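## Example record

The block below lists the input lines for one assembly entry, exactly as stored, with component labels intact.
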Amino acid sequence: MMMNNKDIRICFVGDSYVLGTGDPECLGWAGRVCVNARRTGHNLTYYNLGVRRETSADIARRWRAECECRLPATTENYLVISFGVNDVTIENGAPRVAEEETLGNLRAILDAARVRYRSLFVGPPAVPDAERNARLAHLSERMLDVAAQAGVPSVALFPYLVNDRQWLGEVQASDGAHPRAAGYAKIATRIEACPEWWFGSRKFD
Amino acid sequence: MMMNNKDIRICFVGDSYVLGTGDPECLGWAGRVCVNARRTGHNLTYYNLGVRRETSADIARRWRAECECRLPATTENYLVISFGVNDVTIENGAPRVAEEETLGNLRAILDAARVRYRSLFVGPPAVPDAERNARLAHLSERMLDVAAQAGVPSVALFPYLVNDRQWLGEVQASDGAHPRAAGYAKIATRIEACPEWWFGSRKFD
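Predicted structure tokens for the full assembly:
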């Protein structure tokens, strides 16, 4: 197969959904979209920087250093950012991160990211928990607004998953928070269907 | 399938061979041994912290911070460390890192690692380049000695790969440095066959 000779590096920064927690294939949606990108001829190096339990505040602290050593000036560099579910989780009677703070963290990350790397924001998924979903619905919309204001393209997941019985069922049958292979494949398909995704099909330029 | 309920986290720290560069399946040997560990019932979370082009000096600088946020005190934590090929690469007439310095970096990493995490050192592979292999043969042996002195178990790859035509052929047919799927599968099989690997078969304790 012909390979595009551009040396493409891509970092996926975020939480356990980015990491692919619970996926028996150890790929998650990030790994799946990269396998498919390579299959369509892109010479792509895949870095997964998802970390379990992390909020936007945790991610804001580490993403710069972790991306800098993986995305050198000599290669064509991409960054995908996704988080939110851990921020709205209630601990000690309040969300782990207040909504305004989440949005501030997202804005800071995107402002710094977009001048360095071709960047994409992926919104948080839905969970099988009505109360958390109410907060996530609101947060997800506002996050997409922040991304638009920062000039960073985005892909929403929440509206796509909140009424999806297969997604919710798989998450519930697994650990209550994460899907298994089918759920991650579904997100990968969703992202690949968006014009914002760079490697959806053979697009050599 | 019954899952062991222990919450196991494992970080793989190292270079492009750890990352799985060139693998069309985006797993490398690290991803493959984790897929197999999950298949045999281990509730394992997989973090791949391999970075292309990095020497022991680069890895020594970042591994602590990257592992700390991924391996919390509340889970059962494991660390696999592997590097060496980039250290012996000649740049400006000399190896990128001198042998004594490589060994010093390895010693410092292993001394700090073994008191925090169950740790394993995996030696560097062989490459289709006689001159580099001569340096790697020597370095690999000395690295295994350093690991033994630090009380960290290790798995050698170099002697296993240096005369393996399938490995060398695949690397040569790829980018000259990295294999594709078969080579990474071979390393995964080698590691799983070693008693030092923790998740070789269903071993609940």
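The interface with chain B takes residues 9, 19, 21, 24-27, 31, 34-35, 38-39, 45-48, 51-54, 58, 62, 65-66, 69-70, 72 of chain A (CB under 8 Å). The longest strand of chain A covers residues 8-14.
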